[in-house]
Amino acid sequence: MPAVTTTPFGKDIDVRPRRGAARRPGAPRPGAARPTQGRKTARKRFRLNVSWRAALILGVVVMTLGGGAIAGYALWKSGAIDDGKAWIEGVKKRVTGFAPFPLEDVTVEGRKHVTKDAVLKALNAARGDSLLTIDLHGARERLERIEWVEHAAVERRWPDTIHVALRERQAVALWQSKTAGANGASVAEYILIDRSGRKVRTVDPAESSVRLLLAGEGAPEQVAGLFLLLQDAKPIADRLRAAVFVGQRRWNLILDHGLQIRLPEEGAGEALKRALELDRSDQLLSRDLSVIDLRLPDRITLRRAGAPDPLSSVGGRPEPAPPSPPAATGGPANPPAAKPPAAQPAPDGKPRGGQKT
Questions:
Q1: Which residues contact 159 (CB under 8 A, 6 or more apart)?
Q2: H or E element, residue 191
Q3: Phi, psi (5° rounding) for residue 251?
Q4: In this predicted model, what pLDDT tens digit does every residue of 204-237 receive, in sequence order?
Q5: CA dist list (Å): 210 to 13, 39, 149, 193
Q6: Does 97-168 carry CATH code 1.10.630.10?
Q7: What residues contact residue 229 under an 8 Å CB cut-off, 6+ apart?
Q8: How far is the C-alpha of 91 from the C-alpha of 93, rounded, in Å?
């Protein structure tokens, strides 16, 4: 009979020793099976049991995919896919022809440089198409990919109109860049630039009404800073005809009548203020000068019109020449040389000056 002890609370407690409590270290547990190979346990072998049904299904799937790929390639080579697309488009047009709200008119607001054909091509819609089927989001994205368009909005105006509102880019300068021609010679190319520095398009300068000419590598990216610099220098901004970005560091401003203002790399705004103060007191901009050099913070260097550049006489590095004006803003860049006058015969019929006839 097991030993039982009664507690003061009236509950019985079994005080028999627990199973395995007196087991010596290393001895097997009671009731455990002894290993048949000593201390080394037998390793379990892994067997992959794949039924014949799974293998059959896998083979059918592989054959179906391979056959579909081969059939698709054959259809693509034969042109049947293109014929199918054309048939689907024809069915779509016939269905939408009976759809409500057919397109009858397209109105455009803010168009100045963008052509009518470019707008219609971007809308990708034809007369009679239902307003419900026109993709307004896609049309807006295609419109904004046009070089002149900065922002576009497209909306439906029931019952039969699509309205397009455009905000075109405003060209503020004409950038003169150098490109290599067919014979290897350097050729001037003129590109319209908007206020943010975006290159809009290459144009013939004779057909452009933009008067400000830019030159120098990196000038388009810095044109916004140039206009910010000139907003407090209106007497200079009103007379500005060209600007050269020198060494991608600073600006040379060319005013009308060829007056050149050389600005420093740092403190260009303060330098312009000094020049404007001298202009108010001593009429600096109205004098017969060719160069006003503001690069030194403690002095202003002036050069009279027609005087040679002192840097070229001592072998220094001269300043870059101002850009050649296009034909629309001052005649051709390289005017043809004048031909010598033809020899006039003397009254007696003999040539003058011993020239040969």
A1: 101, 131
A2: strand 186-194
A3: -115, 145
A4: 888 888 889 999 999 999 999 999 999 999 999 9
A5: 108, 97, 18, 10
A6: no
A7: 251, 268, 269, 272
A8: 5
Q: Of 163, 191, 166, which Cα lies nearest the Cα of 177?
A: 191
Distance between CA atoms of residues 245 and 180, nearest Å: 21
- Quick one: CA dihedral 342, 346, 350, 352, positive or negative? negative
Partners of 130 in the beta sheet? 102
CA distance 138 to 144: 10
> Could you tell me the CATH superfamily of domain 171-329?
Cell division protein FtsQ/DivIB (3.40.50.11690)
Q: What is the mean pLDDT of the chain?
A: 78
- What's the CA angle centered on 147, arms 143 and 150, to 5 degrees? 65
- Domain spans, the chain: 97-168, 171-329
19-23, 66-70, 332-336, range with the lowest pLDDT:
332-336
pTM beyond 0.85: the answer is: no
Do the strands 213-215 and 12-14 form a parallel or antiparallel pair, or are they unpaired?
A: unpaired
CA distance 226 to 211: 15
Distance CA 168, CA 263 (A): 32
Please spell the DSSP secondary structure of 218-271, one letter per residue: TTGGGHHHHHHHHTT-HHHHHHEEEEEEETTTEEEEEEGGG-EEE--SS-HHHH
Q: Do residues 232 and 269 lie in contact, with contact meaning Cβ atoms separated by under 8 Å? A: yes
Nearest alpha carbon to residue 15 among 3, 25, 31, 29:
3
Residue 91 tokens read as 């069915």
In tens, the pLDDT along 178-200 reads: 877 677 778 889 999 998 899 89
